[in-house]
Write a structure and sequence with these properties.
The protein contains 31 helices and no strands. By secondary structure, it is an all-alpha fold. It starts with 16 loop residues before the first helix and ends in a 17-residue tail after the last helix. This is Sodium/hydrogen exchanger. It comes from Sander lucioperca.
Length: about 800
């Protein structure tokens, strides 16, 4: 948050000579009083005792006895704590009465009613002629009221949905806030410069004060978002998007506020200032996270040693968290991000160390503290509105409200178009409307505007009036209409479902599965880095921050213990404590899951005979040469950059050959079935060949008809060296490949350097015709020239 302290001159400068002499005299007096002689330390101061006695005698002579007061009134002595107690009591009574009135919570949000109560209280104080106290002071708000709300949100933050949507949240928080600030500030400056012929007070505004006002009014307020979204019970995705944006835009607001406040007096901002602003944003955001993480680790480490003093366990959580916020504010870092980081880091380790009673104390005290702070903020906002001072300008206020709505809608729609290209679960039009409509403004914007100095910003009162108007518009109009709009648009609401052990098992299984898929594909996504972080946490961090055997306990077992304890408490509270031993899962089941001392395993006789080292080495060599090689760790595969496998073509060619061989065997078997039928017709190719072989000169072929195909018969017999048996050729090729292994073959364009492709094809066709047309020799055939008769 912006600094709330004035500038001081360096120590030792600007002091006159008498001041230095007086300072030296005080040091000498202190040294003289502290360093005593050895003898003086043992002897009493008799002269001092005489002076005290004389003073008592004189006082007794001058004292006049009065009547003892039975009742006395001293309000100024207890004014401050009494008024604080009255405000807290008023806030609690108003919150209680709000929920006792039927149907009222369904119509009016709680924040609207609390602001109305603040307006009524401020009006009554004003009518009574008393001065309205400055209740919403920036010191009070930033140091006392805001930290409990942020700590409650950070400690109970749902880490899994928050981390899964972190990219979308950062886009809305950083880019969206920058867009809103510059869009609102730039257009406000343009509107203020309209009609230069008619000069008005708006023409005095410059571009930098307008941008400063835009940075104040552009940030979404986490207090207002929590107050509205918890009542409408929106689904978890939309809630974490809007609430996460309101938490993480704090760093952007701090940097823009400091940048424009610093250079508003100078009147110019250079490129170097913009570059330094970017660096300042990184320092403010990352520095706040680092400070919060350090204090969170310190809290977890301290809770490791609190097993003997359970009473002070919740105290460490509250004190360390508040110190994280103050340390971040001391260095002008983001205190909100420090609290969020501190609560998120400490929770898993602290809950493993503290007792169940301490956990209950932390939970309910944080809820109570944050609820009271939220109630006081809205009441004080109403009181501060009555207190003023205000300066109303219709043009400035109306344009501010319109620009806030327009910039929010354009920013959400434009960023969603970019975000949906990278999201698996797309944001629908209804989701975009809820995100844009849920951009509430609250007390943070009012406090930042309250910090502006009247001397540096003459339009401070007009800025405060516009900020209060925007807050009232977003809280009353948008807050009261968002619930009917959610019902009208049928937006998915939050489902109150209790987590089960089955769901936890499947969640962890899917995490491991997605991590393995990313590892196989060579794509190191967020599942890969999440698994690395979990391994590092389990191997190193848990051993240092968690005491006892809980550090070695698996996550699933820890979740089972938590579920078992919760179920037992629910049964006791519901009156089912009589059946507790039979209803609650027994510890025997836990012993079956994770036995403390596993029994020693019995020696089992080996079923396989013991192999020699030579045989084992031979098996390893076979596996090493035949199994697929594992991929390199740093290599990422893509379908566009795949390297050709030298064994792939040979393997596919071998499969094709074997397929052809199987088909050919089926064809030959089919042909043999046809060769056993009775005698073929006289004009068949078989009978013509038989006659030609018996007497070639006596055979005269008849002219074939047009529709009968002509068959040319080769004179070569089946025993001729030119005839080829395809089965023998395939077997010979397979045997040769088995002996020599798979080899890369050139493309079958040419079989040799001097042999043309047509000749090869013709010869193969001739061999195929010869083989298929010749039925082969008979079993009774003795001579080659003997005619074959079926």
């Amino acid at each position: 948050m912006p600094s709330r302290t004035g500038s001081h001159s360096p120590a030792g400068t600007g002091k006159s000579l008498p001041e230095r002499g007086l300072l030296l005299l005080m040091v000498l007096v202190l040294l003289e009083g502290s360093v005593l002689p050895l003898g003086a330390a043992s002897s009493p101061d008799i002269s001092h005792q005489k002076n005290v006695d004389n003073h008592k005698v004189e006082h007794e002579k001058n004292y006049t006895k009065k009547a003892f007061p039975v009742l006395d009134l001293d309000y100024h002595h207890i004014q401050t704590p009494f008024e604080i107690s009255l405000w807290v009591l008023l806030a609690s009574v108003m919150k209680l009465g709000f929920h006792m009135i039927p149907r009222l919570p369904g119509i009016v949000p709680e924040s609207c009613l609390l602001i109305t109560v603040g307006l009524l209280v401020g009006g009554l104080i004003k009518l009574a002629g008393e001065k309205v106290p400055p209740v919403l002071d920036s010191q009070l708000f930033f140091l006392c009221l805001l930290p409990p709300i942020i700590l409650d949100a950070g400690y109970f933050l749902p880490i899994r949905p928050f981390m899964e949507n972190l990219g979308t949240i950062l886009m809305f928080a950083v880019v969206g806030t920058l867009w809103n600030a510059f869009f609102i500030g730039g257009l406000l400056y343009a509107v203020c410069q309209i009609q230069p012929a008619n000069p008005s007070e708006l023409h005095q505004l410059e571009i930098l004060p307008c941008l400063l006002f835009g940075s104040i009014i552009s940030a979404v307020d986490p207090v207002a978002v929590l107050a509205v979204f918890e009542e409408i019970h929106i689904n978890e995705l939309l809630h974490i998007l809007v609430f996460g944006e309101s938490l993480l835009n704090d760093a952007v607001t701090v940097v823009l506020y400091h940048l424009f406040e610093e250079y508003s007096a100078a009147g110019t901002v250079t490129v170097l200032d913009g570059f330094l602003g970017i660096i300042s944003f990184l320092v403010v955001s990352l520095g706040g996270i680092l400070v919060g993480a350090i204090y969170g680790i310190l809290t977890a480490f301290t809770s490791r040693f609190t097993s003997h003093t359970r009473v002070i366990e919740p105290l460490f959580v509250f004190v360390y968290s508040y110190m994280a916020y103050l340390s971040a504010e001391m260095f002008h870092l983001s205190g909100i991000m420090a609290l969020i980081a501190c609560g998120a880091v400490m929770r898993p380790y602290v809950e493993a160390n503290i007792s169940h009673k301490s956990h209950t104390t932390i939970k309910y005290f944080l809820k109570m503290w944050s609820s009271v702070s939220e109630t006081l903020i809205f009441i004080f906002l109403g009181v501060a509105t009555v207190d003023g001072p205000h300066h109303w300008n219709w043009t400035f206020v109306t344009v501010t409200v319109i620009l806030c709505l327009v910039s929010r809608v354009i920013g959400v729609v434009g960023l969603t178009c970019v975000i949906n290209k990278f999201r698996i679960v797309k944001l629908t039009t209804k989701d975009q409307f809820i995100v844009a409509y849920g951009g509430m403004r609250g007390a943070i914007a009012f406090s930042l505007g309250f910090l502006l100095k009247k001397e540096q910003f003459p339009m401070r009162e007009m800025f405060l009036t516009a900020i209060i108007t925007v807050i009232f518009f977003t809280v009353f109009v948008q807050g009261m209409t968002i619930k009917p709009l959610v019902e009208l648009l049928a937006v998915k609401k939050k489902q109150e479902a209790k987590r089960s052990i089955n769901e936890e098992i499947h969640t962890q299984f899917l995490d491991h599965l997605l991590t393995g898929i990313e590892d196989i594909c060579g794509h190191y996504g967020h599942h890969h880095w999440k698994d690395k972080l979990n391994r590092f946490n389990k191997k190193y961090v848990k051993k240092c921050l968690i005491a006892g055997e809980r550090s070695k306990e698996p996550q699933l077992i820890a979740f089972y213990h938590k579920m078992e304890m919760k179920q037992a408490i629910d049964l006791v509270e519901s009156g089912g404590g009589v059946n507790l031993p039979s209803a609650v899962p027994s510890t025997v089941s836990m012993q079956n899951i994770q036995p403390k001392k596993p029994p020693p395993a019995k020696p089992v006789e080996k079923a396989l005979p013991k192999m020699t080292k030579g045989r084992e080495e031979e098996i390893r060599q076979i596996l090493r040469s035949n199994l697929q090689k594992t991929r390199q760790r740093l290599r990422s595969y893509n379908r566009h950059t795949l390297v050709a496998d030298p064994y792939e073509d040979g393997f596919s060619e071998l499969l094709i050959k074997k397929q052809k061989m199987i088909e050919l065997e089926k064809k030959i078997q089919h042909m043999n079935n046809y060769l056993t039928v009775p005698a073929a017709p006289p004009d068949s190719p078989t009978m013509c060949r038989a006659r030609l072989a018996s007497d070639p000169q006596a055979y005269s072929s008849k002219p074939a008809a047009d529709r009968v195909p002509t068959i040319q018969v080769d004179l070569a017999s089946p025993q001729s060296p030119d005839s080829v048996n395809l089965m023998d050729e395939f077997r010979r090729a397979d045997q040769q490949e088995e002996d020599q292994g798979l080899m890369m073959k050139p493309p079958s364009g040419q079989s040799g350097p001097n042999r043309p492709r047509e000749e090869d094809r013709g010869r193969e066709q001739q061999k195929m015709t010869r083989c298929l047309s010749d039925p082969g020799p008979s079993a009774d055939e003795e001579e080659e020239d003997e005619p074959f008769l079926p």
